């Protein structure tokens, strides 16, 4: 098998990975997944379907369809494709009764072999008793595709503040996200708690939208004598606006003011300066959830999934030492 050669492992090891048998070392899994991506490997769906009389299709359920496809969805889809499954995206707008009917119809149609839901299904969980169609509910998006639960964790806001404090910053500004989102509220809460715990000073909280314009306005309206040397933006898009607003005022980032965002947007590596940011594990959650679902479909033992939230702060060019004087 080409994947085995590319990854430097045996054919049997690759087979175990594709069947989600578990027991593989993390380094081995990483090698195999890298080889699959490099080779754009996809198992032969038609041949497998003819052998097993299976549809090789999995449904991913969202509360509504928007232009925005969340990171868990992207991670789950990647794993499904790597394992030889096609993905159907199902939107469940409406009340709980309608959602229950939609899921029941989906199961009765026998078009899919499993269902991964990124939104709560209420008492439709009872449908999990259907032996032929496993359902896995990760349920972390509400009716408006707003993240909730572990998807909205704000713990790494503490790492942002500490990173900046370690560089000598003492006075901060937080440009918040839309407070209708639990993720925005949690990042704000942890920011405030960390500022207090470390004996720092918050100049204020501004913003309240997920837009670059919100960040630009915050930078434009920041008084020249504010004393702020560090800005924590609740989202990379906001941070891009902050940086542009500061630059339009003739201020240098990070020489005059450091800026840190959240999301590790692709553009963060290419902006000028490159953006310091937080990368959370939402794509990983999607990948691991789909691996669990496929293991159940294949009648295998589901792989163990770490319970702790995995994330990291990525320091780049937009954050640095606090200026000596203002």
| Overall form | elongated
The whole-angstrom Rg is 23 Å
Per CATH, what is the topology of the largest domain? Rossmann fold
Give me the CATH superfamily of the largest domain. Answer: Response regulator
Number of domains: 3
Which residues form runs of ≥5 with pLDDT under 50? 45-53, 124-131, 142-149
Strand order of the largest sheet: 2-1-3-4
Biggest sheet record:
4 strands, parallel
Q: Secondary-structure element order, as H and E?
A: HHHHEHEHEEHEHEHEHEEHE
Q: What is the CATH domain class of the largest domain?
A: Alpha Beta
So what's the oligomer here?
A: single chain
Portion in strands: 5-15%
- Number of E-state strands: 10
- Estimate the mean pLDDT confidence: 79
Describe this protein with a few key phrases.
4-stranded parallel sheet, elongated, Rossmann fold, 326 residues, 39% helix, 11 helices, single chain, alpha/beta, 3 domains
Folded structure, characterized:
- With 326 residues, the protein is an alpha/beta fold.
- Helix content is 39%, strand content 14%.
- The chain has eleven helices and ten strands.
- It has helices at residues 2-7, 11-18, 26-39, 45-52, 71-82, 96-109, 157-166, 182-197, 212-221, 236-248, 282-297; strands at 57-62, 86-91, 114-117, 135-137, 171-176, 201-207, 230-233, 258-260, 277-279, 312-314.
- The chain is elongated.
- The termini are far apart.
